[in-house]
Design a protein that fits this description.
Helix content is 30%, strand content 19%. The protein is flat, with a radius of gyration of 28 Å. The chain folds into three domains: 70 residues, no CATH class; 106 residues, no CATH class; 141 residues, no CATH class. The strands form four sheets. A six-stranded antiparallel sheet has the order 5-6-8-7-9-10, with helices on one face. The chain is an alpha+beta fold and 415 residues long.
């Protein structure tokens, strides 16, 4: 009889914790704003679902983010947004990488969506994305792209989110049949499309948009290659290779500039990043490192060194820094592009191991009257040591091939 009872008797069901008990265990206020509509959802959760649900609430409280609206309402107010990858990393909201330099986030009823909302709704990112794309597609119907006097096309959709239509190739991929298609989203309400023959006009339109009062989205030109998108690969001597290089560098400088105010002062001095033009017309990124305290170096092409008293010591290719084995850099834990922290400072003898771009005298002339963060025009070309060295030395150099043989040249106030 005892044997049979094990088969026919059911175990006593364990009572699940109440919502108040779950919240109290995590120090979550019982009167949390926005919680009331979600209480009914909690009643239907299984035991295995309660802890993740409460953890999601706790995460929102810790970040100071609001609770979501009910999914029944939120699913009709979804809007995908493209942002620079560094912005997505900095802000901490849920995102997915989209293409090089861009990340995809979701805005729900005017609020950027944290990952915890997915848990509270009991849905996946794919569910949210599919619904949002259907809604974006619906809002884009019967709104043609506008042909500009220059021949390029501009998306104008009247909702301030034209850049999001980058996600819907079916809207613009047929504008230039049989030709390579290039796109740009310099601002949230800008989507520019052009064929290769109109790239100069596209660059002009991007520059005009970036000069406007609104926040910058991305200056980089993107190219559609089959079903994929990537930054346009335009190599010298293509006439748009240099403008594309400058646009990508400007996007990077924007990220480094934003980083500066978010780095802890005790880590060291965030070295400024900038761009300098060579004699050959190529723009090269650079930073300056002054002796005296720890420095947080951005990963630029060049590093200009300054003594503690501000005396210029020369500009060198950053890729040759590992030749100074005595200096040990450590990566900084920060969103966006990488920075390396150095505590020491190279001696003159150690600097001699590096490949030189400009001597101390040339660097002094370059920075005279303007400070190290912004070069002033110089009067004569300056040849770097790497360009005057032997071919064999250049072949074994860690300096990337596209930077070898560059000289500083004459600068312009307009550049």
């Amino acid at each position: 009889m005892a044997f049979l009872s094990r088969f026919f008797s059911s175990p006593e069901r364990k009572a699940l914790p109440t919502l108040d008990e779950v919240l109290t265990a995590r120090n979550i206020p019982l009167d949390l704003p926005g919680l009331e509509p979600l209480k009914e959802e909690f009643q239907h959760l299984r035991e295995s679902e309660q802890a993740p649900w409460a953890d999601a609430l706790q995460d929102l409280v810790a970040h100071g983010w609001p609770l979501p609206p009910l999914w029944q309402d939120a699913q009709y107010e979804l809007s995908p947004r493209l942002v620079p990858s560094w912005v997505a990393e900095r802000d901490g909201f849920f995102y997915r990488p989209h293409v090089d330099g861009l990340a995809l986030r979701m805005v729900v009823a005017g609020q950027t969506m944290p990952e915890a909302w997915l848990t509270l709704w009991g849905v996946t990112w794919e569910d949210v994305l599919d619904r949002s794309m259907d809604q974006l597609r619906e809002r884009s119907l019967n709104i043609p792209f506008q042909r500009q006097p220059t021949g390029i096309y501009r998306g104008v959709f009247g909702d301030g989110q034209s850049a999001a239509r980058f996600l819907l190739p079916e809207l613009w991929s047929g504008l230039f049949p049989g030709q390579n298609t290039f796109l740009a989203i310099p601002a949230e309400d800008e989507l520019l499309v052009a064929p290769q023959v109109l790239l100069p006009q596209l660059v002009e339109a991007i520059s005009k948009s970036l000069a406007g009062p609104g926040p910058r989205l991305m200056g980089t030109i993107y190219q559609q290659v089959g079903g994929n998108f990537l930054p346009a690969t335009l190599q010298d001597p293509h006439p748009i290779a240099q403008p594309q290089r400058e646009l990508r560098q400007a996007d990077l400088m924007e990220a480094y500039k934003a980083q500066e105010s978010c780095l802890a002062a005790e880590l060291g001095v965030p070295a400024p990043a900038g761009v300098v033009r060579t004699q050959q017309g190529r723009s090269i990124s650079y930073t300056t490192w002054q002796e005296g305290q720890p420095v947080l170096l951005p990963e630029t092409d060049l590093v200009g060194f300054l003594a503690a008293n501000g005396r210029p010591l020369g500009i060198y290719f950053r890729q040759t820094l590992p030749r100074i084995a005595e200096l040990h850099g450590v990566g900084v834990d920060i969103w966006g592009p990488r920075r390396i922290r150095y505590e020491g400072f190279p001696t003159v003898a150690q600097l001699a191991r590096l490949e030189c771009f400009a001597t101390g005298e040339q660097m002094a002339d370059l920075f005279k009257g303007s400070g190290p963060a912004r070069p002033r025009p110089v009067n004569a070309p300056m040849q770097d040591r790497a360009s005057s060295g032997s071919r064999a030395a250049q072949a074994s150099s860690p300096v990337p091939a596209h930077l070898r043989g560059q000289s500083l040249g004459v600068q312009s106030d307009d550049e």
